[in-house]
Structures are given as structure tokens and as C-alpha cells.
């Protein structure tokens, strides 16, 4: 059964004539007859009483007509939705943290390009606190980051969570498992002097009294991993990004008891900036994210 066959049945029934249906649908009389026959064969019922000159419905045809009308209305709604997506236009400054830039940012941009070709994205990759400051100042329109900003001013939509672990070079002389207190005595590599920890990691470090004595400071995971590979210290790195190097023996995890909770990431925008363009990006981001669903989402 095809939509064109249902459409043909509907108009033949409404207009009471195959000839009028052919004129309405810009088709030949024989094409209309063929579509009706194909629909009847697929359904296994007769829709029209062909003993009459007019297109008179059988009892089965009468019962089917409301369903055919609903089907055509649904098809029209789908077509209108597609048209509205294609006509959505806007320019958005989007801040993104490195964890997302190195995992599923390309999928986000690709799907936005396909589904919403009128939306243009300017991406800025930076540390969480830098993106927060710019969002507060109105210098960017939305961010994808593991932040928790003012709930009264900003809308947060989760895009999943990822685990982080302390990692080092396999040849670095450090134990395979350490306590939080011992960790503070080791050469640690952190991102940003002002904001060493964010979100759940900040809570974890505060709760277990982690004090970093002599950190190496850098502002990207790429540089942090290079310092780790050079056997200069231990870095807190996102597991999904470095799974291959862990599996290949180029990095190893330094277990810490207890381990920090996974880091939840959000799409964050100003609550007053409730535009259809930002909502479209928000929806697509949650859809394409490769991060694990949070425990809250799984329980919902």
C-alpha cells in the first residue's frame, strides 16, 4: 500500500468520479483505475461498486475513508515539518569543551547541516570556565560543557556523562593503585591554574581533601597526554578519548580509591534566549551525543 494509492482512493470517493479524481491529481483515467485496483489487491477488499456509473463506495470503502483522510493529514503534517526545518535560519556562536570537540562534535555539525541547512555554527573550543564567562557576558549563545550555572538564568539539557581516570605512562614509576592523599604528593598535570577542577571532580577533590602540591599546568587534554607520555606526571583524562591508547599499552590507569563520579555534560543557553534555532541545536546535540546516559535519564 502506497500513499499515492490512498490519496487516489480518497479523492475518487470524495469527488464521486474516477474522471474527476484524475483531473484533481493530474493523472490519466487508466492510472487512477490502476491505483485503486492495486490498493484493493493489497487490502484484499473491494472499495468501489463498479456496477454503478458513479464511483460509489462499498461498505468496506465507507469504513476505510476516515482512515485514509487521517493518513493524508498525517502525511501533510510531516511534509510541513520538513519544510519548517528547511526554512529555519540563524547564526549561532557555540562554545564547546575539548571532551566533546574530540568525540562527537563532527556528528553534531554534520546532522545540523543535513537537517537544518539554514543554521550556521561558529564553534569555539575552550575550557569550561572560559565558556561560562563568555556565556554570562553574551559573547556566545550556548555552550556544551560540564558546567552548572545559575538555574534561574540558564537552561541545562543533559547530553550524557563520561568517566575520567588518572592516567600515566606505563613506564612511570608510580603504583597501580593509590589513595587520594598519596595522589596529592605525585606530579599531577592539570588544566588551568585558576580552575583545576570542575563539577563532580571538584566535589570529589573537596570531599577527600586532595591537595596538589606541584602541578604542571596546561590547557588541553592533547598537551596533557603528551606530558604524560613523556613520563612527566599523571593527568586526569577522559576515558573515551584515550581508550585505544589504554588498550594498546601506551597509557595506563592509576586507580584511586574512591574514583570520581562520571562527569555530566550539558547544553546550556540563557533561559531568555528561547529561540527555535537554539532549541534545534539542543535537540540534535542530545540525539547525536555518544556519551553514556546519566542515571537520572535511565530512571526516567
Describe the 3D structure.
About 2% of the residues have low confidence. The chain has three domains: 85 residues, Arc Repressor Mutant, subunit A; 110 residues, D-Maltodextrin-Binding Protein, domain 2 (3-Layer(aba) Sandwich); 94 residues, Periplasmic binding protein-like II (D-Maltodextrin-Binding Protein, domain 2), CATH 3.40.190.10. A hairpin with a 6-residue loop joins β1 and β2. The two termini are 37 Å apart. The radius of gyration is 30 Å and the shape is elongated. It contains 13 helices and 14 strands. With 300 residues, the chain is an alpha/beta fold. It is 45% helix and 21% strand.
Global outline: elongated
CATH topology call of the largest domain: D-Maltodextrin-Binding Protein, domain 2
Q: Give start-end ranges of low-pLDDT stretches.
A: 193-197
Distance between the termini: 37 Å
Q: On the 0-100 scale, what is the average pLDDT?
A: 85
Total number of strands: 14
User: What is the CATH class name of the largest domain?
Assistant: Alpha Beta
Number of helices: 13
Along the chain, the helix and strand elements come as HHHEEHEHHEHEEEEHEHEHEHEEEHH
Q: What structural class do you assign from the helix and strand content?
A: alpha/beta
Helix content: 40-55%
Indicate the proportion of strand residues.
15-25%
CATH superfamily of the largest domain: Periplasmic binding protein-like II
- Most strands sheet: 5 strands, mixed
From the alpha carbons, calculate the radius of gyration and give it in angstroms.
30 Å
So, CATH architecture of the largest domain?
Answer: 3-Layer(aba) Sandwich
How many domain regions?
3
Report strand order across the widest sheet. 4-3-5-14-6
Amino acid at each position: 500500500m502506497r500513499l499515492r494509492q490512498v490519496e487516489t482512493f480518497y479523492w475518487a470517493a470524495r469527488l464521486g468520479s474516477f474522471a474527476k479524481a484524475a483531473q484533481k491529481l493530474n493523472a490519466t483515467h487508466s492510472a487512477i483505475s490502476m491505483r485503486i485496483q492495486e490498493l484493493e489487491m493489497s487490502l484484499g477488499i473491494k472499495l468501489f461498486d463498479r456496477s454503478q456509473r458513479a464511483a460509489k463506495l462499498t461498505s468496506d470503502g465507507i469504513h476505510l475513508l476516515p482512515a485514509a483522510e487521517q493518513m493524508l493529514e498525517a502525511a501533510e503534517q510531516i511534509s510541513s515539518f520538513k519544510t519548517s526545518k528547511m526554512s529555519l535560519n540563524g547564526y549561532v556562536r557555540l562554545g564547546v569543551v575539548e571532551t566533546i570537540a574530540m568525540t562527537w562534535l563532527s556528528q553534531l555539525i554534520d546532522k545540523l547541516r543535513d537537517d537544518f541547512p539554514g543554521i550556521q555554527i561558529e564553534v569555539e573550543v575552550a575550557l569550561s570556565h572560559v565558556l561560562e564567562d563568555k556565556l554570562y557576558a553574551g559573547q556566545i549563545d550556548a555552550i556544551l560543557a560540564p558546567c552548572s550555572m545559575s538555574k534561574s538564568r540558564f537552561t541545562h539539557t543533559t547530553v550524557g556523562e563520561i568517566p575520567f581516570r588518572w592516567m600515566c605512562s606505563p613506564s612511570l614509576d608510580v603504583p597501580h593503585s593509590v589513595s587520594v592523599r598519596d595522589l596529592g604528593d605525585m606530579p599531577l598535570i592539570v588544566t588551568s591554574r585558576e580552575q583545576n577542577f570542575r563539577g563532580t571532580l571538584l566535589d570529589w577533590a573537596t570531599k577527600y581533601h586532595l591537595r596538589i602540591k606541584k602541578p604542571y599546568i596546561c590547557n588541553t587534554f592533547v598537551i596533557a597526554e603528551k606530558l604524560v607520555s613523556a613520563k612527566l606526571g599523571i593527568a586526569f583524562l577522559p576515558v573515551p578519548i584515550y581508550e585505544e591508547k589504554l588498550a594498546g599499552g601506551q597509557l595506563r590507569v592509576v586507580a584511586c580509591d574512591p574514583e570520581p563520579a562520571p562527569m555530566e555534560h550539558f547544553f546550556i543557553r540563557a533561559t531568555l534566549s528561547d529561540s527555535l534555532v537554539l532549541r534545534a541545536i539542543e535537540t540534535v546535540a542530545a540525539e547525536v551525543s555518544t556519551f553514556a546516559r546519566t542515571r537520572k535519564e535511565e530512571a526516567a
